[in-house]
Amino acid sequence: MYGLSKGLGPLHTPPANRPVCVLLESDRELFGVLCNQVTLFEQTEPDITPLPKCMQTPGTPLRGLALDHGQILCVGSADSLLACLGDQFETAEASRPAQQPDEGLV
After folding, report:
1. What are the beta bridge partners of residue 11?
2. What is the pTM of this model?
3. Which residues contact 51 (CB under 8 A, 6 or more apart)?
4. What's phi and psi for 81, nearest 5 deg?
5. CA-CA distance, 94 to 91, in Å (whole number)?
6. 104: in domain
7. CA separation for the pair 51, 73 (Å, rounded)
């Protein structure tokens, strides 16, 4: 289960103020994302517009934008989100100092 920052990066401590957990299935695994709200589309998907060039940053999980009842929605896939989260989480973990084991533990 992941909690996301506003920049879509993984948070090491899940936020307590995210009341919804969405389960997503990628080609690799099933995982959860904590969020404030979820938009469910009716039977047909909205028209998805490719991301503008200014939003096409390396590693972004976003694949496009959609309009739903006057709101702009970011569109991605479970696979692209999991890849982004995994890359960011591994980078953050690698930059953390190694923890020393407690002396009383073997």
Report:
1. 3
2. 0.63
3. 60, 62, 63, 64, 65
4. -65, -45
5. 5
6. no
7. 11
Residue 37: CB partners within 8 Å, gap ≥ 6?
Answer: 20
What tokens does 106 get?
A: 């073997």
Coil/strand/helix, residue 84: helix
In whole angstroms, give the CA distance from residue 82 to residue 64: 17
Q: Which of 69, 24, 26, 80 is nearest to 46 (CA)?
A: 69
Domains contained in the chain, number: 1
The closest of 68, 61, 64 to 51, measured between CA atoms, is: 64
Q: Which residue has the higher pLDDT, 16 or 93?
A: 16
Enclosing domain of residue 67 = 2-95
Instruction: Encode pLDDT of 39-52 as tens digits.
Output: 776 656 668 899 99
